[in-house]
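COURSE: Structural Biology Practicum
ASSIGNMENT: Worksheet 4, Part C
STUDENT ID: 0417
INSTRUCTIONS: Below are two proteins. For each, the amino acid sequence is given first, followed by its structure token string. Answer the questions at the end about the second protein only.

PROTEIN I
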Amino acid sequence: MISFLGKCTQNLIKCLKYLLTGQLKFSAIIEQAVLLSYDSLSISLIIAFIAAAVITIQVAKQFLMSGAEAYIGGTIAIVLIREIAPGFVALAIGARAGTAISAEIANMQVTEQVDAIKTLKVDPVGYYFTPRLVATTITVPMVVLLAELIGISGGMLVSHVTIGLHPERYIYSVWAWLALRDVYISLLKAAVFGGLISLVCATKGYETRGGAKEVGTSTTQAAILSTVYMLVADFLINLVFYIAK
């Protein structure tokens, strides 16, 4: 994993060079944004809604029994924004879009399309990686922000249906507990996770050699590696912002 991390770092540097030299086309970013994030929007929002609803069901009765039902909204908002939304959305996009990135680039590698682009004196890493990297880094935070709104609304709906908590008390608790700092860190996590999804999955696909069997193997390994790296990044970001503050 350390060796692979080194390869990812090298590819990231190549992408930054490709981006700074002005070779990246805006249309390529938009195309990848649609394929990677927009097409994953529905499943991401569904996951956020269900996660918030399940958490609300688990805590609502206990809060009601202890007379702390007024704090349900704040609790759901903090848990959702700090951890659930960026983590679950990134995992959903990684499972759907990340594996597609790996499979596509791996297929290009084994069918010698990468070698063909090299003959044109174009850096294949910059050409293939950069649009995907920029697209996910920008758009995953947008999906996460929508997921947070849907999740908080889902918690409000479930708490009203299950224990009759008035929406005004729920929203007041959200505003009282939630800080803009939490939202900023959540979006930072989403941007980092989005970049990791593209970088790790594209690098794994680019390292593929062989045939169709190796393409499938690389796709599976890309999903596992991207999940591991996201969890490590999540831990480090939490350590820096929430523990060491």
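PROTEIN II
(use this one for the questions)
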Amino acid sequence: MSLRVLIVDDEDIARRRLERMLAGMPEVEVVGTASDGVQARDAALDLAPDLVLLDIDMPECDGLTLAATTALPAVIFVTAHREHAIEAFEVDAVDYLLKPVTRARLVQALDKVRARKADAAPDVTEVVREALADGRRPPRLSARCGDVLHVFDAREVQRLCARDKVTLLWRDGTEYVLDESLNELERRLEAWDFIRVHRSELVNLGAVVSVHLGGGESSVLLRDGSQVPVSRRALPLLKKRLR
């Protein structure tokens, strides 16, 4: 399986070394290079590579920030710093290579990318989700406010959350209480683009305006102005679903 590769590193020597190593490998084409995160973002858009070999410590925009905020293809981090490995895999990196990279280790990483591409046939979960959504009426949610039971089209609900052992939703500034648990709602609404972003938060992807990263804590901004926390575990899946 052929791979079109973009090399991103602020050190010219490092870029040239990776180019030389890749030049001797079958079915690998280096389609471009970049020396900082801004150039890399533009190159990824213009060149449409299959893989980005990405340094972390760079000017303008570091590699981790670039991977977290940009819809990149497969990413292999190539860095001199051991301490960022956990963060790298949280942004769905395929592999994490320490400089100086050996040819054998690079070949191993490229094989991982090929394996991931081979598995990139339509996601069965996604296919099932779409089939369910196409074949069923939109789900309704029954929620209480005082002595009145209200019925909502789930597609119009932006957020459901668990608070003090009850499940809540808000509409137009009013709080409503549901009898279903957040786990039950997650299973029932998965086919309608709801995703668990935190142990106590379920959001409608269609209501997401932006994803805020940094400071060790992430969040999403919804159309109604709500800022909802996103757990470190949920962040990679959220970004994948939004793409």
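ANSWER KEY EXCERPT:
Q1: The chain has a mean pLDDT of 87.
Q2: The chain has eight helices and 15 strands.
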